[in-house]
Amino acid sequence: MRVFSGIQPSGNLHLGNYLGAIVNFVSLQNKAECIYCVVDLHSITVWQEPSHLYKNIHEITAGFVASGLDPKKNIIFNQSKVVEHSELSWILNCTARLGWLNRMTQFKEKAGKNKENMSIGLYTYPILMAADILAYKATHVPVGEDQKQHIELSRDIAQKFNTDYKDRINLLTKNSEFFVLPKPLINGPVPRVMSLRDGKKKMSSSDLSDMSRINIMDDEDQIFNKIRKSKTDSGIIPSDISELDNRPELRNLISIYSGISKQSHQNILNEFSGEQFSKLKKYLTDILIAEICPIGHEMKKLISDPSYIDSILLDGAEKARAISKPILAETKKIIGLA
Ligand code: TRP
């Protein structure tokens, strides 16, 4: 079992990254060989302020370590340091089909009506993601629910490559398959953390309103204010879990509560049913502060020592390259480029 996953350094590390991905990363570190990548090349598919980008790369790395990922046990690095990602990505551009990319819902959502003005990179982004995963022959990819379609695309690309080059693969490797078909692991505590301002939108570092998210480095007052002002409806807390279906903001707060406290949705409803939102919000604020603020403090400490973070990334890149370089070399041989 080899695990690969990535997080984009496109702004603040927030609760969605933490509950949707990092908590899962931490629990996998004792069960498998894990490779965790700060996907900086993905982040530049939309404009990134150059003076912020490197700081954001450091922030994600510090977030990984502060959340409990051991840089000795896991390979932690940033994507642009390992050229194999970009090179394999080009090769896979030639395997993937236009029709497959045209079905990607994330591109449609991000581009909206503005498709013609988006970067080509945003469109081919899932192919770079496939290259990230296939360059390591990763077997499992822990992601949030929204990335499932991209993992399926990675499988399709791997499958097509294996079929297109079947004879060469047989000849050169004595195996019938070359790339491994990766499986998504969607069992983070909360597969989809939503915005605090709109329960139908994903919590995101690119949301213009900082009130829409809890950043891992937020202080106690910020967390208190953001939860207090988070959008709710005018009802009371129900006891029946099916009521959450039509109340997205309530569902989101209960999901966050559940992710942090590790209690089931139903248990939480049992505790708060018949109450106003204010009580739920007060308890949620307390557990969030208790879990998130120590991680934020640790992140700030780590970030204040940039040479330490750089050494983690450099060491990780060397280890990552030791795996991906021979896989790319073999890929090129299979194609006939070498
Ligand atoms: N696209 C992912 C996201 O936005 C990030 C990502 C890039 C990724 N490469 C990956 C996740 C490889 C898993 C595996 O969340």
Could you explain how this protein is built, in words?
With 338 residues, the chain is mainly α. It has two domains: 2-191 and 306-335, HUPs (Rossmann fold), CATH 3.40.50.620; 210-301, Orthogonal Bundle (Tyrosyl-Transfer RNA Synthetase), CATH 1.10.240. Helix content is 54%, strand content 7%. A three-stranded parallel β-sheet has the order 1-2-3. α1 (15-28) links the parallel β1 (2-7) and β2. It is globular and about 70 Å long. The protein starts with a strand and ends with a helix. The protein binds tryptophan. Residues 4-6, 8, 39, 42, 129, 132-133, 141, 143, 147, 150 line the site of tryptophan.
DSSP strand content: 5-15%
- Strands ordered across the widest β-sheet: 1-2-3
Let me know the number of strands: 5
Bound molecules: tryptophan
**Known CATH architecture of the largest domain:** 3-Layer(aba) Sandwich
Query: Helix amount, in percent?
Result: 40-55%
| Terminus-to-terminus distance | 29 Å
Task: Write the element-wise H/E pattern from the N-terminal end onward.
Answer: EHEHHEHHHHEHHEHHHHH
How would you state the average pLDDT, rounded?
Answer: 96
Q: Any idea of the CATH class of the largest domain?
A: Alpha Beta
Q: Could you give me the name of the CATH homologous superfamily of the largest domain?
A: HUPs
Total helical segments: 14
Radius of gyration: 21 Å
Q: Look up the CATH topology of the largest domain.
A: Rossmann fold
Question: SS-based structural class?
Answer: mainly alpha
